[in-house]
């Protein structure tokens, strides 16, 4: 595993009408790591994600990906470079099968992702790769199932498959286990661990049990600024982190677990 930083921010700041949502954040994500952004509600985690993936422009600061500044690049440009985001709310087409969803994602690099009228024969070459990706996320047997009929946890797994179709080197996962029961959480944890092999993952996650099981390094945000950083043992022992989570008794107990 290389120790090179695949993603870095320098003084990353975002202000909205005088309110500072992200305040001078210096983030370093090592290649091959699973890195988590955590913090209480309103800490600025999703805003950081939106800055990294160019849905927002920073007020100040720089973003570097593989040593190159992407601060002023567009979302589609950085996606083509391998920095791909999976959204907090499942973003798949309910009226299409699992196979068809992945196939649409595979069409995007060749510029035909919305050509739904193309014949099955024309799209056949993409099916082999689509089935491989479904197999990678444990959905091979659901290839012909309409997405609307799939349980929530499997829809999230399908979303990971469509993200993998973009051939990411860095996957940004936004609350991958939100709204899931324990069984689905366990399945997604194992899925992330599996697909992270050979890739880098940066994730926003509220479930600290998930973070403790998966992540090599954790950055804790509070009020838009970096509060603490390190492995789980380090950040969970930090009294500032405990204080930041005291608004939720359950989460406070998890931090101390």
From TrEMBL:
**InterPro entries from the xrefs?**
AAA+_ATPase, ABC_AA/LPS_Transport, ABC_transporter-like_ATP-bd, BCA_ABC_TP_C, P-loop_NTPase
* GO cellular component terms, semicolon-separated: plasma membrane
Residues in domain ABC transporter? 7-248
Look up the signal peptide feature and give its range: none
Q: List the GO molecular function terms.
A: ATP binding; ATP hydrolysis activity
Checking SUPFAM superfamilies in the record gives: P-loop containing nucleoside triphosphate hydrolases (SSF52540)
For this UniProt record, the keywords arranged alphabetically read as follows: ATP-binding, Nucleotide-binding, Transport
Pfam family for this entry, one: BCA_ABC_TP_C
| Protein name, as recorded | ABC transporter ATP-binding protein
